[in-house]
Write a structure and sequence with these properties.
276 residues, two-stranded antiparallel ribbon, 13 helices, binds S-adenosylmethionine
Length: 276
């Protein structure tokens, strides 16, 4: 039996401090990344209204911060990693979206006592912050709900266990059968389950994620994987991307299929949109 792993905020912030600029590139490096960016952004476009006061949790370098400012929100940016927060400020100043940002706070989402109850119209927690807090996921989500006003919207995405196995199969094949079984069963990538990996996180099943959201009394409006159809298409996708009508058709198909319940567990990430 692997030893139980506990959430370690220092470990997470060190990882993301060292990750630096790579975090800014995370959703634009490959065509698959761009599809994931598109799917996440579509939910923001569908539910965000101009003028909303919005909290972004685990914002990192600001890929979504920029989009939220372009949607005319007033954004409070937060992250556990000092390095990512500094990068967010730098990108905002360099790329001209700092005027839409109310403030930058370094904090751990497990304790957001610096914000009042019900202070935000929406909370965005994209790219897995809830996957990094392991046994504190209920507490961290509870904090997001506390600062959200009644009727407010919670946008989130977490890592998906089956989707990750699907997308990254070659990189788990070097592990022993016992290690693979333990990771797939527990959803946990830790120093004990995968000693060569430095990216520790909990990967969810869709039902487990729905249960977590519902324990915090959130009403789930939408769910989606990111991505499904084209996740293993490799270089073929580059060719599709060069032809705008074909690329747009692929984005439309991904959006349709990823939202089908049968596909929720198939992407590297699981997206949920909820109302408090
Ligand atoms: C993979 S990045 C995602 C960034 C961005 N939201 C996106 O989707 O592109 C995850 C971010 O969550 C932050 N994070 C992890 N655990 C956190 C916590 N407990 N409180 C606040 N931020 C956290 C990390 O520092 C990192 O910047």
């Amino acid at each position: 039996m692997p030893k139980e792993y506990k959430y370690d905020p220092e470990d997470v912030s060190r990882f993301f401090d060292e990750h630096g600029e790579k975090e800014w590139e995370r959703l634009v490096r490959t065509p698959q990344d761009r599809i994931s960016l598109h799917l996440h952004t579509e939910f923001l476009r569908e539910h965000v209204e101009p003028g909303m006061k919005l909290l972004e949790v685990g914002a990192a370098a600001g890929r979504f911060t920029r989009i939220l400012v372009e949607l005319n929100c007033r954004v409070t940016v937060t992250d556990l990693s000092e390095g990512q927060l500094a990068l967010n400020r730098k990108k905002a100043e360099e790329l001209g979206f700092a005027s839409g940002i109310e403030d930058w706070h370094r904090l751990d989402m497990c304790d957001m006592a610096c914000f009042l109850d019900g202070d935000f119209d929406a909370v965005v927690c994209y790219g897995g912050p809830l996957s990094y807090v392991f046994e504190k996921a209920d507490q961290a989500l509870g904090e997001c709900c506390r600062v959200l006003k009644n009727g407010g919207i919670f946008f989130s995405s977490v890592m998906s266990v089956w989707g990750a196995a699907h997308a990254f199969l070659p990189s788990i094949m070097y592990l022993t059968s016992d290690q693979i079984d333990t990771i797939l069963e527990s959803g946990d990538v830790t120093p004990h389950t995968d000693p060569n990996n430095k990216h520790f996180c909990h990967m969810f099943r869709s039902q487990e994620y729905r249960d977590l959201l519902e324990r915090s009394h959130l009403h789930i409006l939408d769910m989606s994987s990111a991505n499904f159809l084209s996740v293993n298409m490799g270089e073929q996708l580059e060719k599709i991307m060069e032809i705008p009508p074909n690329w747009n058709e692929l984005l439309r198909l991904e959006k349709e299929t990823c939202r089908q319940p049968g596909c929720w567990d198939t992407g590297t990430h699981l997206i949920a949109v909820c109302r408090k």
